[in-house]
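ok so I'm stuck.
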Amino acid sequence: MYGFLVCMLDKKFFHTPEGLKQILAYELYVNHGLYQKDIADFLGCSNNTVANYVKKLKKYTHLKDFKIILESKTQDIQEALGVIKNTK
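replied:
not stuck anymore, here's the structure
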């Protein structure tokens, strides 16, 4: 038909526990420079899962709605940073 794939941002998904995990993985890796291993240990998943979360969310970085979602999770991100840094 159109020959292109439309990638839609599911805003409701990011209010689920799995969506929060993906946001935390993205933010902690991309914007806070933590190692994937440390993030994976915190989230209870593998390094590859963290890498996949980051790759998946990078395609949304240009969207205003995605930036708003990230801002709404600031407290969760700060809490995760505190826990990870205190366990080292």
